Each structure stands twice: as structure tokens, then as C-alpha cells.
């Protein structure tokens, strides 16, 4: 893929508050990138700087061969969809979608064809005569998306476009957006605080915190190989255990000894990060390494699987979360108070 968008040393301050610090990022043509982070981390500010709706206090932005660092929004090549839809309530759906094309003074016949094409593309053919108030939230967001794509922009910016929708509509629409982006090949940046949303649609995720980038990687890289404790804790659930590393790939957690893949030069205290799925309830055979016994304290039913809270005197007082399927719980007759042997996967241990 060819390089399409390049951010170099982007900084932004509001008085004494530093919202963004030294942001460097390259995005390839046709890539779907998610800015992921908690509220106030700077992700929306960065998106607005790319759009020209905010002015950076340091750094430069290149889109294709153009330096767009100081260009006004009208001279930048992008379409944008906001969280609030931002449709004109006094215009029909067709007129909302056509808004950017009318401003470019394109022929009416050409505009009508493009509007029909886009309404079909977003799954709302024949809705052009309706007004936004006659549509559901999900339908309004589809119209906002069609409007953003009307001028065939090279860059699509999505500012938390699904956060105002209910859970089922959010899942449905995010997959439609991903499918549409793949079909059109438009370079896309989406801001979200929803980790599941980012993991399910992005080619790469940019994890942000306190105005800096903590990690950039594929969803699998960010989830499986977090670069910092913040990423490990923010993306997915995590168990954090105090341990002590010893030479010879040995790790002590509480009174138990485990085999790990990190061969320390000397003894040192560490924090061990383990995803709930890295604690296996089966298969466990006699003689397996890295096995300890726990007791179930809580079962949180989530449909086909459960979050199971356990505690083990063998590794210390801290609670742990394990993922178990509903079938497995039923098969073994597990309930609160049941004994549950667990095996730790050495290759999945992360140390910070």
C-alpha cells in the first residue's frame, strides 16, 4: 500500500493544557484506522486537526503529495461523519446527501444520479423524499455517511459515529461501514472509545492516552502484545499478578512456581499480565506444568460464555477472571464454591 496521510510532530495546546504531544503517524491508502482511547485522551482533537477544524500548535500534515498543515477545511479532501449525525432537519434526505454536490455546482441530473447511487449503497433506496425526523437513529447515520461520501473524498473521517445508537444497531452498522469502506477503498479514520468496535473493524488501531500514542498495531498485535500497561489494561480484560522472576525461566507468584518464556539475568519483581482466556480450565493432564487450584467466587452470565471470578490461596489473595463456556460450566456442574484447576500458558504471559 502507498502512503496516503502523514502526521509529523503534531502538538496541540489549549493555554497551559497540552492536549497532544509529538504525534507521529503514517496511514496507507485504503487503510481503516481507529483512534482508540478514553475520554479526554486527545483522539477527537487529532481528528479535528486532520480535518482543519482545529489548528495544531506544532507539526505538519501531508495528504498524498500535498502539505495541508494550514489549509482551511474546504480545501482539504475529506468527508466527515459526526456523532450527532448533523443532518439539516429542514432538508429532505436527498437534499442532505446532495448538499456537498450542490455547493460544487454540479449539474442537477448528475447530482440526482449520485444521490440515488449512494442511497442504494447505504441500504436506503427510495428514502430521498423523507425528512431526517422520519428516520431512526441508525438510518440517520447512514444518510450522514452517504452525504460524507457524496463528493468521492480520498479520506473519510468518522467521529464516534455509532455511540448514540443502541447496542444491536451499533454492531450492525459498524459491519456495514467496514464492508462499505472495503468496497470503496476509501482511506478511513474512526475515533472511538469502544474497544470492541475498534478490534472488529480496524486494519490498525492507534491507542492514545493523555495526548500521546501508546501503541500502533493491528487489532491482534494490540490485544496479544500490548506495548504498555495502559494498553494491556484498556484493551480487553486483564489479570494483573505480582510475581518474582528468577534465572532459568522461573517465575514465582505467591507460593507457586511457574515456567515462563523470559529468562531473567537476575531476580526481580514484576507484574504479570494475563488475559482471562490465557488461564485454561482444560485440557489439564497429570504432570502438566503451570497448574494451580482455584475456587469459584462469582459467575457472570453473558449468554454463550461466562466471566468467572476465582481466587486461589496458592498464588495469593488477588481475584482472577476466567472465561468459561456455558456448556463447560454445565458439563462439570460448576457453581459458586466449586474447585477449578487452572493452567497458565507461558507464551501468553506479559511482564511490565
Provide an overview of this structure.
This protein is α+β, with helices and mostly antiparallel strands. Helices cover 26% and strands 36% of the residues. It has nine helices and 20 strands. It has a six-stranded mixed beta sheet, with helices on both faces.
Lay out the secondary structure.
Layout: E1 3-14, E2 17-28, E3 32-36, H1 43-51, E4 58-63, E5 66-67, E6 79-81, H2 93-103, H3 108-121, H4 137-149, E7 155-159, H5 167-184, E8 187-192, H6 195-201, E9 204-209, E10 212-217, H7 219-224, H8 229-234, E11 239-246, E12 250-253, E13 256-259, E14 268-274, E15 279-280, E16 291-301, E17 305-312, E18 316-325, H9 326-332, E19 339-344, E20 350-351
Parallel strand pairs: 3-8, 3-9, 6-7, 7-8
Antiparallel strand pairs: 1-2, 1-4, 4-5, 9-10, 11-12, 11-14, 12-13, 14-20, 15-19, 16-17, 16-19, 17-18
Helix pairs in contact: 2-3, 2-4, 3-4
Amino acid at each position: 500500500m502507498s502512503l496516503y496521510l502523514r502526521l509529523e510532530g503534531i502538538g496541540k495546546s489549549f493555554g497551559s493544557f497540552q492536549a497532544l504531544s509529538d504525534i507521529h503517524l503514517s496511514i496507507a491508502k485504503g487503510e481503516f484506522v481507529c483512534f482508540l482511547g478514553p475520554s479526554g485522551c486527545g483522539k477527537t482533537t487529532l481528528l479535528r486537526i486532520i480535518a482543519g477544524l482545529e489548528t495544531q500548535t506544532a507539526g505538519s500534515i501531508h495528504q498524498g503529495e500535498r502539505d495541508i498543515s494550514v489549509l482551511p477545511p474546504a480545501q482539504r479532501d475529506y468527508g466527515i461523519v459526526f456523532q450527532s449525525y448533523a443532518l439539516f432537519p429542514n432538508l429532505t434526505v436527498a437534499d442532505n446527501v446532495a448538499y456537498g454536490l450542490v455547493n460544487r455546482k454540479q449539474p442537477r441530473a448528475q447530482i440526482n444520479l449520485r444521490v440515488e447511487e449512494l442511497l442504494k449503497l447505504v441500504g436506503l433506496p427510495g428514502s430521498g423524499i423523507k425528512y431526517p425526523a422520519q428516520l431512526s437513529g441508525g438510518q440517520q447515520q447512514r444518510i450522514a455517511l452517504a452525504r460524507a461520501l457524496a463528493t468521492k473524498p480520498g479520506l473519510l473521517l468518522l467521529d464516534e459515529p455509532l455511540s448514540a445508537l443502541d447496542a444491536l444497531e451499533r454492531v450492525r452498522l459498524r459491519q456495514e461501514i467496514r464492508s462499505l469502506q472495503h468496497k470503496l477503498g476509501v482511506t478511513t479514520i474512526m475515533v472511538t472509545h469502544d474497544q470492541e468496535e475498534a478490534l472488529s473493524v480496524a486494519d490498525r488501531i492507534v491507542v492514545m492516552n493523555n495526548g500521546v500514542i501508546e501503541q500502533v498495531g493491528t487489532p491482534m498485535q494490540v490485544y496479544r502484545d500490548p506495548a504498555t500497561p495502559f494498553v494491556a489494561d484498556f484493551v480487553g480484560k486483564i489479570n494483573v499478578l505480582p510475581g518474582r522472576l528468577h534465572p532459568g525461566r522461573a517465575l514465582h507468584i505467591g507460593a507457586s512456581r511457574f515456567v515462563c518464556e523470559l529468562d531473567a539475568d537476575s531476580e526481580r519483581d514484576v507484574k504479570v499480565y494475563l488475559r482471562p482466556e490465557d488461564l485454561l480450565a482444560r485440557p489439564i493432564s497429570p504432570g502438566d506444568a503451570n497448574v494451580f487450584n482455584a475456587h469459584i467466587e462469582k459467575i457472570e452470565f453473558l449468554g454463550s460464555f461466562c466471566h468467572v471470578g476465582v481466587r486461589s490461596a496458592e498464588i495469593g489473595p488477588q481475584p482472577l477472571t476466567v472465561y468459561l463456556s456455558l456448556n463447560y460450566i454445565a458439563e462439570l456442574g460448576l457453581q459458586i464454591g466449586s474447585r477449578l484447576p487452572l493452567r497458565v500458558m507461558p507464551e501468553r504471559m506479559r511482564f511490565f
